[in-house]
Automatic annotation (TrEMBL), chains A, B:
Species assigned in the record: Vagococcus silagei
Job of this protein: Formation of pseudouridine at positions 38, 39 and 40 in the anticodon stem and loop of transfer RNAs.
Protein name: tRNA pseudouridine synthase A
Catalytic-site annotation from UniProt: D53 (nucleophile)
Any GO BP annotation: tRNA pseudouridine synthesis
Organism lineage: Bacteria, Bacillati, Bacillota, Bacilli, Lactobacillales
Keyword Isomerase found: yes
Name of the gene this protein is made from: truA
Length: 251, 251
């Protein structure tokens, strides 16, 4: 059966997350419903590079799936794009080797986290940023962010409910950029991230920036696995899965 | 009774427009519901600078209303802001002379219209721009836009259903700007605009830019009132009421 890799975007606002579940609409459900119609009524199972939570967005999520019959990739992209709801966009579809796996073979992921620092909460940003109106010391936050980079056991920054056993991850880069219109952009790049890890790191960095945790809180949290050295989990609506990389094409 | 002027923002996505109506939630309804609670249970009627349609947004809509008792303006703003839904934002509240009228005394309005020209429709822009993927000749559109400026009888650019008798308006400026991320921004500034006038003008300019109407179509439409010289009404989600000006403060 031919295997396809697709890059997709979605506005996570109206979804209960990526993965199919009993209560609430999900991205997977919408995509599989459409793919089934395009696959002569036979069910198609979608495998994402990783799940995203309710309210979390994606600009470059990667999925793979198998179809019964060969298909022209661009025609498949167009059919999938036009037949899924407007808040899901199919950026590209390509046929790949049957050994390709969107989750197990990913080598790098980039997440963005947008914080709106306007004095009042904008109605246009409420679903796409997290609002934070207090003072922040960006220099202190940038110093603290350096402690995230490298290979660490990130168990303390993993929410309960994860079934992953090995909680060691390598973070290549953490950048904090000031953007126009009172926005702060956090950029995380690494070989993988644990359940809610980015949001817990952002929550901790904001608490450090506001002076309510010491500058070396992240280093101490990683060393001692002490929960008191971490901040709250930042809201889902600021988070974007931007890009997933694979070492080399297999096809 | 003290009169208050307020500047408000709203994301029009989840509303059936500004004005109270039988079917569907409206901005006016939400604001009046909250104001009634803040006014000892007595109904407060809101007067906007003008109505906006379903899906249309506002960054600087102006309203006025009367309260039974004197109030601290900033405390009133805060109460109104926090007790209305997240997609409505109260930017400012000030007490004004009892002769002030948000609609009759406005002297200038600015509207923006955002067009997304990306090859594919972005899930993040679907509610905040109108998508247009075809080629456009911006020079021709900018020439055509000059025919809008000035004092004209704009009846041909007024949707049916308007009860306004005098359809003469003065447009001070029409600008078409290229923005980052494949966006086109239309800026309209005038002493007032008729029902759906901005959206009909944008629809006509796009049709001119696409070569499906002559460059002088607007001039001919205004002269002959010929409907064939106009384009379709552009979608509501690209439209923003940006600012309403009043000659001088009365208080």
């Amino acid at each position: 059966m031919p295997r396809f890799k697709a890059i997709i975007q979605y506005d996570g606002t109206n979804y209960a997350g990526f993965q199919i579940q009993k209560n609430g609409r999900t991205i997977q459900e919408e995509l599989e419903k459409t793919l089934k119609k395009l696959n002569s009524g036979t069910r198609v199972t979608i495998h994402p590079s990783g799940r995203t939570d309710a309210g979390v967005h994606a600009v470059g999520q990667v999925i793979h799936f198998d179809m019964l019959h060969p298909r022209d990739a661009e025609k498949l992209r167009y059919a999938l794009d036009t037949q899924t709801p407007h808040d899901i966009n199919i950026t590209s579809v390509e046929e790949v080797d049957e050994m390709f796996h969107a989750r197990y073979m990913s080598t790098e992921k980039t997440y963005h986290y947008r914080v709106d620092r306007s004095p009042t909460k904008s109605p246009f940003k409420r679903l796409y940023t997290s609002h934070y109106q207090y003072d922040l010391d960006l220099d202190v936050m940038r110093e603290a962010a350096k402690d995230i980079v490298g290979t660490h056991d990130f168990s303390i920054f993993c929410a309960t409910g994860s079934s992953v056993e090995d909680k060691t991850r390598t973070v290549y880069e953490v950048r904090i950029e000031e953007q126009p219109d009172h926005e702060l952009l956090f950029i995380f790049r690494g070989n993988g991230f644990l359940y809610k890890m980015v949001r817990m790191l952002v929550g901790t960095l904001l608490k450090i920036g506001g002076g309510r945790l010491p500058q070396d809180a992240i280093q101490r949290a990683l060393e001692s696995q002490d929960k008191k050295m971490t901040g709250p989990t930042a809201h889902p609506q600021g988070l974007y899965l931007m890009e997933v990389k694979y070492d080399k094409p297999l096809d």
